[in-house]
Amino acid sequence: MNQQNQKIQNPETQVPKTPQMNDRDFVNDMLTTEKYITDAYSTALNEASNQAIYQDVASIFQETQNCQRDLYNLMFKNGWYSLEKAEQQKIQQAYQQFSGYTNQFPIH
Q: Based on the number of CB atoms within 10 Å of its own CB, is 4 exposed (0-12), middle (13-18) or buried (19 or more)?
């Protein structure tokens, strides 16, 4: 079986194709926004020097990350988000390439 270009996707929930935003457009916009926000919170966490602020931002980050995951799941469930199926040979090659790197990490 040819695994190239195989997509993992649920059946697509149809939405009106009009100039106005539809449900898919709204959810996609929210997902994109949540991804952007979690990226910004991640940077803030990396640079926070005050522990109380760090804890507050970490809590908000987790809530935002959960929202992002829920929106991703909704998009995937409705067939509006697809993934490319990875070829087993490429997975094995990457594993072999990086499996010898363990001694380069500070924690073994």
A: exposed
The pLDDT of residue 103: 66
Q: What is the mean pLDDT of residues 8-23?
A: 92
Grouping H, G, I as helix, E, B as strand and the rest as coil, residue 39 is: helix
- Structure-token pair, residue 65: 């990350």
Separation CA 16–CA 24 (nearest Å): 9
Share of residues in the chain with pLDDT > 70 (%): 89
Q: Which domain holds residue 49?
A: 21-81
DSSP state of 8: E
What is the per-residue pLDDT for 7? 87
Does residue 27 sit within a domain?
yes
Tell me whether residue 64 is in a domain.
yes
Q: How many domains does the chain have?
A: 1
Report whether pLDDT(65) > 80.
yes
The packing angle between helices 51-77 and 23-47, to 10°, is: 160
